[in-house]
Specification:
With 193 residues, the chain is α/β, with parallel strands linked by helices. Helices cover 40% and strands 17% of the residues. Strands 4-3-2-1-5-6-7 form a seven-stranded parallel beta sheet. Helix 1 runs parallel beside helix 2 (44-55). The mean pLDDT is 93.
Length: 193
């Protein structure tokens, strides 16, 4: 993996461990010569992960919609900042620039980004690994909900298994390196999207 997109909150959350792990993830990616692609903001966990990567001289590309420039203040020290017009363009560009995705704690926007990326994978639009760094059990309830979707017949186990989970950065990266996309998925061509 040469580049990883990270989706995370533009807030810090209530527990210091979220900020600590975001900074450490940024540092780890830089040390392993993996480019960080993220939302381009200097606020919250978004800014923290960028600062972590930059502290180790890592390459960091931000993708920020023009209308969010005043709300999610653009990080001034990035390797590259790409300005797009819409949220959908942001996700599309972040997908184009990465070899995998990691999800950190966040709110509605983070979940929306995660679910769109995992849905694209389920539809066969990409075969990239998608991992959740489950810091301090933050995503335990979401993991349970995904299992409920399987149990109630709304999601196949093979699609549930596409979500890689760990509370350890090194373990999650190792799972991502060895990920093999399922050979059976809901095939749809990019022209049909």
């Amino acid at each position: 993996m040469k580049s990883i997109t990270v989706f995370c909150g533009s807030s810090f959350g209530t527990d210091k461990i979220y900020e600590e792990q975001a900074f450490l993830l940024g540092q780890t990616l830089a040390k392993e010569n993996i480019q960080l692609v993220y939302g381009g903001s200097e606020t919250g966990l978004m800014g923290t992960i960028a600062n972590g990567a930059l502290s180790e001289k890592g390459k960091v590309t931000g993708v920020l919609p023009r209308f969010l420039q005043s709300k999610e203040i653009a990080h001034k020290n990035l390797t590259e900042l790409i300005i797009v017009e819409t949220m959908h363009e942001r996700k599309t560009k972040m997908n184009e620039l990465c070899d995998g995705v990691i999800v950190l704690p966040g709110g509605y926007g983070t979940l929306e980004e995660f679910f769109e990326m995992i849905t694209w994978a389920q539809l066969g639009l990409h075969k990239k690994p998608i991992g959740i760094l489950n810091i301090d059990g933050f995503y335990d309830d979401l993991i349970q909900l995904i299992q409920t979707m399987v149990d109630k017949g709304f999601l196949k186990q093979i699609n549930s298994d596409m979500v890689l989970l760990s509370n350890s950065i090194d373990d999650l990266l190792e799972k991502m390196r060895h990920y093999q996309a399922p050979t059976i998925w809901k095939v749809i061509s990019k022209d049909e999207v």
